[in-house]
């Protein structure tokens, strides 16, 4: 077994977001954990501090008639799309997961895609997290 440095982060939104343009990077400002200092709340981007396999998860909550299309992006390339088009429920959420091999300096972030996002609920309902799960 090879020992490696713990690299992990978890951050959520401080407040609700309304009417975000298409291709807007979501900045999760409320950082709960940032081992390895890879996540930057000012940009909303995670930068891999070292080579490895990483796991990322995210979850978003919207209200009735809320529309949110989310992309998980690695170095300007979309890798996972999740979406909500809520016409029925008072609130509804979606989540996503990405496992990806990163080199030191690769960047991962969450952004809107396809259509503008009408409403994203802040607080602990909406988050982005990631961790290194193996060295290369």
Short account of what is shown:
The chain has no helices and 12 strands.
Question: How would you describe what is shown here?
Answer:
The protein has about 140 residues and is mainly beta. The protein has one domain: Jelly Rolls (Sandwich). Helices cover about 0% and strands about 60% of the residues. The chain has no helices and twelve strands. The strands form three sheets. The chain has a five-stranded antiparallel beta sheet with strand order 3-1-12-6-9, with no helix packed on it. A five-stranded antiparallel beta sheet has the order 4-5-10-7-8, with no helix packed on it. β7 and β8 form a beta hairpin. The chain is elongated and about 45 Å long. The two termini are about 15 Å apart. The model has no long low-confidence stretch (mean pLDDT about 95). This is C1q domain-containing protein. Keywords: Secreted. It is found in: Secreted.
Topology:
Elements: E1 8-13, E2 17-20, E3 30-35, E4 39-40, E5 45-47, E6 52-63, E7 67-74, E8 77-85, E9 91-102, E10 107-112, E11 117-120, E12 123-134
Antiparallel strand pairs: 1-3, 1-12, 2-11, 4-5, 5-10, 6-9, 6-12, 7-8, 7-10
**CATH top level label:** Mainly Beta
Q: How does the helix and strand content classify structurally? A: mainly beta
| Overall number of strands | 12
Write down the overall geometry: elongated
User: Mean pLDDT, nearest integer?
Assistant: 94
Please, how many domains? Answer: 1
Given as residue ranges, the uncertain stretches (5+ residues, pLDDT < 50) are none
Helical segment tally?
0
Rg (CA only): 15 Å
Q: What helical percentage do the residues reach?
A: under 10%
What is the CATH architecture annotation?
Answer: Sandwich
Subcellular location: Secreted
Pfam families: C1q (PF00386)
Main location: secreted
Keywords: Secreted
């Amino acid at each position: 077994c090879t020992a490696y440095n713990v690299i992990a982060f978890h951050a959520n939104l401080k407040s609700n977001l309304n009417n975000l343009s298409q291709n807007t990077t979501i900045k999760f400002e409320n950082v709960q954990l940032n081992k390895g200092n890879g996540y930057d709340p000012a940009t909303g981007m995670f930068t891999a501090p070292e080579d490895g396999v990483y796991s990322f998860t995210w979850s978003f909550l919207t209200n009735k008639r809320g529309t949110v299309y989310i992309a998980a992006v690695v170095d300007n390339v979309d890798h996972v799309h999740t979406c909500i088009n809520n016409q029925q429920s008072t609130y509804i959420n979606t989540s996503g997961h990405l496992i990806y091999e990163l080199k030191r300096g690769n960047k991962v972030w969450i952004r809107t895609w396809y259509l503008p996002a009408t409403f994203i609920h802040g607080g602990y309902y909406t988050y982005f997290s990631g961790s290194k799960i193996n060295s290369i």
